[in-house]
Amino acid sequence: MNRYFYYNVFLVSLLNLMLFVPHILLRFRYDGAVSSMGVAIVIGSSLALMFTKVMKSFPGKGLPEILAEFFPKFVIVPFLLFMAVLWLVASSIALVSYAVLINRFFNPDTSPIVVLAFLCLICIYTSSRSTLTVIFVIEIGLIINAPLLLFILIKATRSTAIDWDAIRTIANYWTKPPKLQPVSAATYVFTGYINYAIYNRLNPPNFRIRYRWLIPLTGTFILLMTFFVPIGFHGTETVDNYLYIWSVTADSMLMGYGFIERVMFFFLLLYLNLTLIYTTSGWHQAMEFVKSCLPKSSPQVDCIQTPKKNWIITSVFAVITLTYSILLNEKENFSISSYWLTFRMFIEIGSVLFLFVLAFRRKTST
């Protein structure tokens, strides 16, 4: 079961390349981005290690069941609905952003709303499955896509087009003090562990998460790649001209493999798969939080037939996502995403510390 935990960590780490995290970090490249990444590595790694410690104290239980041990339902329902909104916002922002990318790079003549609607239909079906099925989907998706993405990332560092002088120039700004916005953006790379707020239901008693040193190691590697590789390809100034910087960076790379000469299209197809998997996981967890608020709710990690309420809840998520895309433009979406990343970091810190106190209380009372 260890691999399922790390699948979530790797999924979020890799997905940050296609979100607004690189652009936010690069905006602060002269003003504290390097030191902010150092702070984020410490914060993100500490939260991840602390959270794994907490989940070890509650084997086979998700966040709703943990809270139900200590508080009455009328107290925890608002908190669970709030957590459902957080997971929905995170996944829907990723889906909306990728619909814009598909429209811009693959088929500019098609409306992004049409593309988004098609993606939402896929996610309605996949996210409404059982928890066990969703974790299998994550596993299959990462086994297929992650090695290819890592190959592209490693190839980028070995490209002759990369300018190491530009990278060294920006690295010399490490003395600038960290800023809140780049710190919160950089901590998102480590936030995949929080998905076990629901997936911990799959863990048997006496379960231990091993090789936890992989969390800071993997997060640091992806974070450094996220920030420095685009600088090496585009220079210290031009790098700030692009919103979806990694799409342009992938377009700067070539592969001498015949039918895969331009990396960008291959890169975007791989990230289409990851975005759908990420949204599937996010909507599924939001759905489980909502279901935990319903009367007579009981967690089921595997079920033969999909309950109707799963279809209803995920369909509502799709309608909310489409409405969000219609009402807000790309600039407003970026602004909301920036504020959300900061808000998410504080909520994440508070939630992990709160659960740590509950785990300590449970241990001392037994």
From TrEMBL:
Presence of the UniProt keyword Membrane in the record: yes
Record-annotated membrane-spanning stretches: 6-26, 33-55, 75-101, 113-128, 134-154, 213-234, 254-278, 310-327, 339-360
Key words of the record: Membrane, Transmembrane, Transmembrane helix
Name of the protein this chain belongs to: GerAB/ArcD/ProY family transporter
Record organism: Paenibacillus solisilvae
Taxonomic lineage of the native organism: Bacteria, Bacillati, Bacillota, Bacilli, Bacillales
